[in-house]
Amino acid sequence: MRRSYETSGLWGLVDARLTRPSSPTGKADEKVVDAVRQAVREQTDASTGTVDRVRRRTEQILAEAGTDPADVMPSRAGFYRLVKSVSQGKHTFGSARTRRSLAKQPDGPFGTVTAFRPGQWMQIDSSPLNIAVRLDNGLTDRAELTWIIDLATRSIPAAVLSPSTKSVDAALLLARCLTPEPMRPGWADALRMSRSVLPHRRLTGIDQRLADAAARPVIVPGTIVCDHGNVFMSQAFRNACRAMGINFQPAHKGSPWEKGTVETSFNAVDTLFAQYVAGYVGNSVENRGTNAEQAAAWSIVELQDLLDEWIVSSWQNRPHDGLRDPLASGTVLTPNEKYAALIEVAGYVPVPLSQDDYIELLTVEWRAINSYGIKIRHRKYDSKALRRYRREHSGVTAKKGLWEVHRDPYDVSRIWVRNHRDGGWIEATWTYLNAGPVPFGDLAWDHAQRMLTRRGIDKPTEDQIASSPPSSPGSSDCPRSSGSTTPATSPTPSARS
Question: Which position among 138, 169, 312, 327 has the lowest Cβ density within 10 Å, counted as fewest Cβ atoms?
């Protein structure tokens, strides 16, 4: 030690083992390390396997390169340590979906998007809700939740439950964002906007629709981020965004982190809401209770009402970790508190939807106007206003003279035809509307068709289906109440059940 001190000074007294540079891969041969890295990369798109499969593939790679594996391969325990070091953070032996997602992440640092006002950036997505519900056809299945979240305030201005999400559901979800949430019978008076932290008096002076609304803010979307699901990439949803002046921004394929806020919010629904509801089936089969589906007690209509009440009472008033004050990081705000703070700076401009705006959001089909009217899914629609256009060319040569028809799949009682000649819309009603006075949607129509088929009628006619609606009067309303906003006479989003 004295000699080391004389030759190297104080540094000579330091334990050399502490100054020796270390490698994450230890003393393994570089050829083996390169072969293991290649084998781990090949696991990205493959089904999840074991370390032994990676070991065998590593030996094959070494042999193909002209190296004898017996000369360079470490022991079994050493190979396990090497693979653990190389595959760190890659989920090589975990979830295949997570592994593929991580492989697509960029190597550079992530950028951030800062929202300074409500509605500036919003994210929309759909996911099965882990609650078994009773459907119209008597079966029990999970409903699908589609909702939109505001990045600036973490508010949920609209959420819809349906048996399976359609493009019209996503389009009408935009209309619900612009429509105040009405108070429902049985809701506590404390859920009124006038009793919340929201600036109710000042907002009501601008928008009278908020006078008796519940404490859920009305947010006008500016930019909506979504994935590449068929529902959101459909022409109906894109047309709805275009009609309402919303910037449509799909995320990159296989990049769920680009809309991570709405992705993680579904986990919160499970822990904060779903697990306390009768019929909860867990987030996977291994977490499912015995005969959990038999505990289903709610229809979609009832569950939708429970969800809306939970959003108003709990979600909007629960402190959110993503809403910390940048100047006082110890302060956590609720979505309603954050909305009230930002609305003082950004202001509020109401955007009420007219009847024409609502019709623009519906599903689009192109049909000919025949002598009997218009036929859609074996249903005939007619009105006096259509008579002058029977068997005539619409003037739209790109569609071979067909007429643009908008319909609500949750209400088969009427359709709207765009008047390509004089402008505006022509309303046509179902010719059997008098035979079936209660409007019911495509799901109930299909159920009635299957019911007649079980009775021995192979190809039921429109007259037979119209005279045999579902036995339960409330079942015809279920899809409509869970997302559509179509009253019987004047379709405006404010008239929701």
Answer: 327
Question: Regarding beta strands 379-382 and 425-430, do their DSSP bridges make them parallel or antiparallel, or are they unpaired?
Answer: antiparallel
Contact (CB, 8 A) for 155 and 219: yes
Percent of the chain with pLDDT over 90: 29
Nearest to 268 by CA among 130, 151, 143: 130
What is the predicted pLDDT for the residue at 48?
A: 92
**Among 429, 441, 427, 434, CA closest to 470:** 441
The phi and psi torsions of 405 (rounded to 5 degrees) equal -120, 130
Closest to 465 in 3D by CA, of 408, 412, 417? 412
Neighbours of 265 (CB within 10 A): 19
Distance separating alpha carbons of residues 152 and 247, to the nearest angstrom:
16
Give the span between the Cα atoms of 467 and 314, in whole angstroms.
44
Letter string b/e over residues 84-113, b meaning 16 or more CB atoms within 10 A of that residue's CB: eebbeebbbbeeeeebeebeeeeeeeeeee
CA-to-CA distance for 462 and 382, rounded, in angstroms? 15
Domains of the chain: 19-103 (no CATH), 122-352 (3.30.420.10), 356-481 (no CATH)
Q: How far apart are CA 359 and CA 405, in angstroms?
A: 10
**What six digits make up the tokens of 378?**
């074996």
d(CA 488, CA 411): 9
Give the dihedral of Cα atoms 210, 216, 220, 223; nearest 10 deg: 180
364: exposed, middle or buried (C-beta count within 10 Å: 0-12, 13-18, 19+)?
A: middle
- Give yes or no for a contact between 427 and 383, defined as CB atoms under 8 angstroms apart: yes
CB 376 within 8 A of CB 385: no
Q: List, for residues 188-231, the tens digit of each pLDDT value.
A: 999 999 999 998 888 888 888 888 889 999 998 999 999 888 88
Closest Cα to residue 237, out of 308, 426, 226?
Answer: 226
Could you count the other beta carbons within 10 Å of the beta carbon of residue 158?
A: 27
Strand order in the sheet with 425-430: 363-367, 403-408, 411-418, 425-430, 379-382, 374-376
Give the ranges where 393-441 is alpha helix by DSSP (H): none
Query: 285 vs 402, which has greater pLDDT?
Result: 402
How far apart are alpha carbons 133 and 301 in whole angstroms?
10
Q: Which amino acid belongs to residue 320?
A: H
Q: What is the pTM of this model?
A: 0.69
Question: What's the pLDDT band for 484 if we cut at 50, 70, 90?
Answer: very low
Pairing of strands 223-226, 247-250: parallel
